[in-house]
Amino acid sequence: MSVDIVCVGFGPAMGGFLTTLSRQLVKEDGTPAVESPSAPGLPPQVICYERADDLGFGVSGVVTPARAIKQSFPQFDPAQVPMAAPVKHEKIAYLLDPIGASRRSTALRVADALIRAGQWALPYEHQAVNLPWTPPFLRKHDGLVLSMGQFMQWVGSQVMGSGTVQVWPSTPVASPLFENGSVVGVRLIDQGTDKQGQPADGFMPGMDIRAALTVVGDGPVGALGRQLDEHFRLPMGNHQFDWAIGMKAVVDLPPHVELAPGTVFHTFGYPEPEIFGFMYVHPGRIASLGIFVPSWFDSPVRTAYRYLQHWMLHPYLWRYLEGGTLRSWGAKSLQESGRAGEPRLAGNGYARIGEGSGSTNVLTGSGVDEAWATGTMLAEGVVELLKAGKPFTQENLEQAYVRRRRASWVEREARVAEQARDGFQRGVVTGLLGMGLTGLSGGRLNLGGDPKPPHRRVPSLESYYRGKLTPAEIQQLREDCAAKGTSLRDALMDRVGWPAVPLDGKLLISQQDALLTGGKVQAPPGYADHVTFVDPNTCAQCGVKICIDACSGQAISAGTNGVPQFDREKCVHCGACLWNCSQPHPSDPRRTNIAFLAGAGGLHSAEN
After folding, report:
1. Suppose 189 and one of 174, 311, 427, 462 were both cysteines; which one would form an S-S bond, judging by CB atoms 3.0 to 4.6 Å apart?
2. Between 12-22 and 148-161, two packed helices, what is the crossing angle to 10 degrees?
């Protein structure tokens, strides 16, 4: 099939692109404002393919300055979108360790002791200290608290209601179509296959969609974007080694809690110093809350779900959450390299927008608004080229889109933030100081670091637990868990002092229950597995297997001969396995030994 513009991924960047583009394709009288190069007399034919089974599935709760969003919708009323509210109150809190199991450096332990000793003179409450001042670069005042799923469904109805754009959910895109160094469209995923991708009953090969322009906004783990990066390579000096996994939940707050909609909490310091937390209050006594587990958290047992529950149980947060009920749950990978991870933004026949294009601001912790802005800038450039009758060559796209982006506030602020988080490569305290230095100096001063791929930074279990557990104890736990078929990560956390989570069946539930009740995870049959292990021999020799511990939905488990096995019925498509794998790709050390391909299914909730 041939169209004029084919788009991949329906997130905030594509929302900005299609919103802006659709408004400029048809005049008020219904005639084309811009004619299709391939179908004279008609507006350009635009189609967007989204992997998830419906619009808004799998994206998350967010607080955003919403500058670009408000520019697209000057009369936007938050009441039009479920769970949307203007930001009213922001607070940042440093959480102390109430149980003594956290791995804190000597500097942090001294600081914690001083805080406890002088709590009478500090804004101290419930084993936490409220920062008396929020740095300007972190403020989201006048912004919006949103459920991105609900917001994207609202945007989708606006875009498709224009009659100029088609959006097709539940349609994964397998690969780009290359021709003589150009991208000439995409190939959809094969249907009716077994888990290995071999034809089965009802087999239908993926359709080729040819287009003059392919717009790629499929996020940090999107199959198409990653294949473009492998084909064209990142610009010299750029890297994508900084990632995070966001583990989150949407909760009905208990009746006694009176937090106003638009209240925003950010936390740091617990359950481990590297882990950051958030809570955003929506209308209707609903809250989005969760943690970010970053790539610089050098732990071989990155079990985000259990850490999420320990974070919720911290006294500072539990006073608001006790008696609440889980509504939905999920996880998402975040590309935290920002401007340093920018790929090639445009080439012959294609352009990149959104998080996968390096738009996230790593200083302000803002990504949705920046992603939306990149989409609007590309749309303006595309309309300019269409009106001028110019083809979508690399040169023309560089002039119409990349040049706009380089002159924008997105680029200006990204340059300031580019090295803001490098200090975390040298420790949490150094990282926090580095962010403050960067923010307060406008990017002129930084505490540098050297971001590394996982296989160069993740320690062994024996090294990580040195001083707490002996190698013999770890080996005994490994053997006991293997014999019982139980979790080694839980056994290790139990042994070093983390208490059992007091499951209540409502908010604190097992991860398997979260998959069923809160995660709403589904995976339709007839598709190949989207997570594969590139070199099984490398997996067999791996002594860490972070892929198992870090998997958000417990979709990866121990398999035969030391090679993990994948169960897509539990996969939430967060991509944590992709960046957490501690083994390098056999032919490219910048990548890991796990391939994350196009696939269907995942979360079935528009709230989270």
Report:
1. 174
2. 20
Tokens (6 digits) for 189? 């995923």
Contacts of 77 (CB under 8 A, 6+ apart): none
Q: Are 275 and 302 in contact (CB under 8 A)?
A: no
**For the domain with range 2-75+148-190+202-239+338-416, which CATH number is right: 1.10.606.20, 3.40.50.10490, 3.40.50.300, 3.50.50.60?**
3.50.50.60
CA distance 218 to 47: 14
pLDDT at 524: 85
Give CA angle at 461 (460, 465), nearest 5°. 120
Integer Cα distance of 590 and 585 in angstroms: 7
Helix-helix angle 368-388:409-417, to 10 degrees: 140
pTM: 0.96
Domains of the chain by residue range:
2-75+148-190+202-239+338-416, 79-147+240-335, 419-451, 460-604
DSSP state of 500: P
In 178-265, where does DSSP find H-type helix? 223-232
Whether the predicted pLDDT of 553 surpasses 90 = no
Residue indicated by tokens 């473009």: 228
Q: Which helix (H) or strand (E) holds 146?
A: strand 144-147
Tell me what the mean pLDDT of segment 538-553 comes to.
86
CATH for 79-147+240-335 is 3.30.9.90
Helices 471-484 and 488-495: crossing angle in degrees, nearest 10, is 140
pLDDT of residue 275 exceeding 90, the answer is yes
How far apart are alpha carbons 212 and 4 in whole angstroms? 5
CB atoms closer than 10 angstroms to residue 138: 17
Q: Could you report the per-residue pLDDT of 182-227, keeping only the tens digit for each?
A: 999 999 999 999 999 999 989 999 999 999 999 999 999 999 999 9
Q: Are strands 350-352 and 208-216 parallel, antiparallel or unpaired?
A: parallel
Q: pLDDT tens-digit profile of 35-78? A: 898 788 899 999 999 999 999 887 678 999 999 999 999 999 99
Q: Which residues pair with residue 288 across a beta bridge?
A: 250, 280
